[in-house]
Design brief:
Rossmann fold; alpha/beta; 13 strands; globular; binds 6-O-phosphono-beta-D-fructofuranose; five-stranded parallel β-sheet; 18 helices
Length: 540
């Protein structure tokens, strides 16, 4: 466990001095990107991915110092502790073993002296068997019709990663299956979904690790009532994914099947567990889901076994700390030039910000250096026509671009004016990284581009299930490497608790008022009371 602040390492002071050097005009990115052999030191390949950081504001000395920081902080050793089942989530006293979910090697993983792999394999086999029965229509809805609509009820880590992967692999979905996500407690979400599904052929998948999340429980209740009113047998239309031994396992809950996720898997790291496994295998098929897991496993091995200077997620994490804490950029955008990756940024928002938006070291002392990055994003080229004005001339933020060499739909690759749409897309990706870095002088201030705006580019060969698995595991590993550098615990989330507690109090007031028209919201503060009165008055 990390008890030291970054400033406790002598190399941190050297990095601060180096940052001042890199801020000098002679180190403007327009010069750095033209340096001979820039790509020899700023391009990495591994685990089927390419990572180019030639457009970051670094030179060889900066990288040597960052590598030294990684060595001093022993972050590879921390990663090994994580994958080997140590209680790395110190505040909640448990392991963080999402990597075990995609392990196919047959090696044991011990947690508290017990090999957890048999349990993991059992759940994987249970999912496979269940999915085969649904796909072959051996298991049907209560009127005997095969399932065609899948609705995931869950929020945060119990849905965002699954949504990302399902969008990324949408073209590989089993043709008859449609997948929906009921995450928000907002009735618009429920109303739209039930207007699109056919209840008789709908399987609801309720996913919650805790089974106490109010939004998920409220939506599940609504779904139960909706199906009951349609005269359908609930025990034929609901599936549950929840923590082994948790409240979701109540015997009275009607269900077709239930699947365990484990205490040692955090919500935002749970896509490769039953949380993603059940809906994604139903939607994409067992084989595609397994290929996705194998891609993630390959990236895990790369992250664990590759030396610091060649390790893709580790180098990405070092650059993140460099940009945040030494160059002073608090935000980062993720811009995939591939529409199927449109849900990558929303997933990484939660992964990164819930993991590393922290104020204390894992050991408890307040962090001297701020941890966490503000993450947002949108696919290119749409992003260019949305917020790239700010990116080029307003407040700068580093960008992670993602490019894909071979798109889907090759039948539409005819060129117009000699350039295919896909080449047009790539022209834009390459141009943005160059323009942001190099800028352009102009006598008119409104037309001047300052440049010196950093970016990295990730390149995938295609959108195969393996590559989506690699990309997912890359970001998971990057996130925990960042945490090991900053020194925070990336596996707890106490920051979301206060809002939930305040909502509990307000919900209680609403409940009282629902049963007594004259109740005066006496417990809320004056502003909350104003809103509650406005809500009940029916007038804004
Ligand atoms: O937002 C807080 C949080 O606890 C997330 O960490 C989690 O992914 C989400 O809520 C859902 O939790 P659960 O799976 O327990 O319903």
């Amino acid at each position: 466990m990390n008890t030291k602040q970054l400033k406790d390492y002598p190399v941190w002071e050297k990095l601060k001095q180096q940052a001042e050097i890199m801020k000098q005009p002679e180190n403007h990115l327009k010069h750095l990107i033209l340096k001979r052999n820039r790509l020899d030191t700023c391009l990495l390949k591994g685990a089927g991915m390419l990572y180019d950081f030639s457009h970051q504001r670094i030179d060889e000395r900066t990288m040597r110092l960052l590598f030294k920081l990684a060595e001093s902080r022993k972050i590879r050793a921390s990663f090994t502790s994580m994958v080997s089942g140590e209680s790395i989530n110190v505040t909640e006293e448990r392991a963080a073993l999402h990597t075990a979910c995609r392990k196919f090697s047959g090696d044991p993983v011990f947690m508290d002296g017990k090999d957890i792999m048999p349990d993991i394999r059992n759940v994987r086999d249970q999912i496979k068997g269940f999915v085969s029965q649904i796909h072959s229509a051996a298991l049907t809805g209560s009127t005997g019709k095969a399932f065609r609509h899948l609705v995931v009820i869950g929020i945060g880590g119990s849905y965002l990663g699954t949504e990302f992967v399902s969008c990324a692999l949408q073209e590989q979905a089993i043709s008859r299956m449609k997948l929906y996500f009921l995450s928000n407690v907002d009735i618009h979400n429920f109303g739209r979904i039930v207007s699109e599904i056919e209840p008789e052929t709908t399987l609801w998948i309720v996913i919650s690790k805790s089974f106490t999340t109010p939004e998920t429980l409220a939506n599940a209740r609504l779904a139960y009532e909706f199906m009951e009113k349609k005269g359908l047998a609930l025990k034929k239309h609901f599936v549950i994914v929840t923590r082994k031994g948790g409240p979701g396992h109540h015997p009275a809950t009607p269900k077709l099947a239930s699947f365990d996720m484990f205490d040692f898997i955090g919500g935002r790291y749970s896509v490769t567990s039953a949380v993603g496994g059940v809906p994604l295998s139903l939607y994409l098929g067992n084989e595609t889901f397994e290929r996705f897991l194998k891609g993630a496993e390959e990236m895990d091995r790369h992250a664990e076994e590759t030396p610091v200077s060649k390790n893709l997620p580790l180098v990405a994490a070092l650059l993140s700390v460099w940009n945040n804490n030494l160059l002073g950029y608090p935000a980062q955008a993720i811009i995939p030039y591939a529409s199927p990756l449109r849900k990558l940024a929303p997933h990484i928002q939660q992964l990164g910000m819930e993991s590393n938006g922290k104020q204390v070291l894992a050991a408890g002392d307040r962090l001297d250096e701020p941890a966490g990055t503000i993450i947002f994003g949108e696919p290119g080229t749409n992003a260019q026509h949305s917020f790239f004005q700010l990116a080029h001339q307003g407040r700068p933020f580093p960008i992670e671009f993602v490019g894909v060499i071979h798109p889907r739909y090759p039948q539409y690759l005819d060129s117009s004016k000699g350039v295919t749409n896909h080449q047009e897309l790539w022209a834009n990706l390459i141009a943005q990284a160059t323009a942001l870095a190099a800028g352009r002088e102009d006598g008119s201030p409104a037309r001047h581009f300052p440049g010196n705006r950093p970016s990295s580019t990730i390149v995938l060969a295609d959108l195969s299930p393996e590559n989506i698995g690699r990309l997912l595991a890359f970001y998971e590993a990057k996130t925990v490497f960042e945490a090991f550098l900053w020194g925070n615990n990336p596996f707890d989330q106490f920051g979301v608790e206060l809002g939930k507690t305040v909502a509990d109090d307000i919900r209680q007031e609403i409940l009282t008022r629902n049963g007594n028209e004259n109740y005066g919201f006496s417990k809320s503060d004056q502003i909350a009371r104003y809103y509650l009165e406005t809500l009940f008055s029916g007038q804004p």
